[in-house]
TrEMBL record:
<feature type="transmembrane region" description="Helical">
    <location>
        <begin position="105"/>
        <end position="125"/>
    </location>
</feature>
<comment type="similarity">
    <text>Belongs to the 4-toluene sulfonate uptake permease (TSUP) (TC 2.A.102) family.</text>
</comment>
<feature type="transmembrane region" description="Helical">
    <location>
        <begin position="6"/>
        <end position="27"/>
    </location>
</feature>
<dbReference type="InterPro" id="IPR002781">
    <property type="entry name" value="TM_pro_TauE-like"/>
</dbReference>
<keyword id="KW-0812">Transmembrane</keyword>
<keyword id="KW-0813">Transport</keyword>
<feature type="transmembrane region" description="Helical">
    <location>
        <begin position="39"/>
        <end position="68"/>
    </location>
</feature>
<feature type="transmembrane region" description="Helical">
    <location>
        <begin position="229"/>
        <end position="249"/>
    </location>
</feature>
<keyword id="KW-1133">Transmembrane helix</keyword>
<feature type="transmembrane region" description="Helical">
    <location>
        <begin position="137"/>
        <end position="163"/>
    </location>
</feature>
<dbReference type="GO" id="GO:0005886">
    <property type="term" value="C:plasma membrane"/>
</dbReference>
<feature type="transmembrane region" description="Helical">
    <location>
        <begin position="198"/>
        <end position="222"/>
    </location>
</feature>
<feature type="transmembrane region" description="Helical">
    <location>
        <begin position="80"/>
        <end position="98"/>
    </location>
</feature>
<feature type="transmembrane region" description="Helical">
    <location>
        <begin position="175"/>
        <end position="192"/>
    </location>
</feature>
<dbReference type="Pfam" id="PF01925">
    <property type="entry name" value="TauE"/>
</dbReference>
<keyword id="KW-0472">Membrane</keyword>
<keyword id="KW-1003">Cell membrane</keyword>
Amino acid sequence: MPDLLWQVWATPGLIWLLLAIGVAGIVRGFTGFGTALVFVPVAGIFLAPQTVVGVMTLTGIVSTFVLLPRAWRQADRREVGLLALAALVTVPLGLWLMQVLEAETIRWVVAAVAAITLGALVAGWRFSGIVSRPMLLAIGAMAGVIGGMTGLTGPVVILFYLAGQSAAQSVRANTILFLAALDVVIAVNLLSRGSLEWTTALLALTLAVPYFITSLIGQALFDPRHQRLYRWAAYSVIALAVLSGLPLWT
């Protein structure tokens, strides 16, 4: 165990990882999203894709204990269930892509997905049509592929919810509940493949401490009356993370 702990503390860029996960916790606490969009681009600079996905998934599961009770009461559980069902089927495809693609390619995919998501939201794109059951399944399926491949579990669903007309409270609750379900699905798949190492689990536990604390801070700051301010603050943080994580710099 001491050797494993030493390996965790010797993780390249650990200070930056702790800082990134702390900021991500605040963002997720008051918006219900943004952890992966903030953390994954930065983590990709220092960690292998498999480690990024494992850490992101395990850390997300730990954080769920902070945010899930309120979200469970406020979310549309039937809608979230359809999204999760579709993701359950496609996560294995995403994990397979993670294994066969080069690390730099995955970092470009991360940058592209995050930038497209952010650009659409900042531009004020709105979906005013009727969301059918097949559309919900397609959104969940896409989230499963991208989440398994990159650790970006939220962008597809974030774009779907935040681009719509739903109230901030509903968006926040549905997103938290779906991301919790997707984290569990990815973790189970990783365990069944024997792809989760002890060092990854201990690194996730180390990062979960500041993430747990800052998620509580973010949740305390959440006020539906200031949803516009929260969104723009989150957009700014995400943009900085995406730019810093571009493979151009390393």
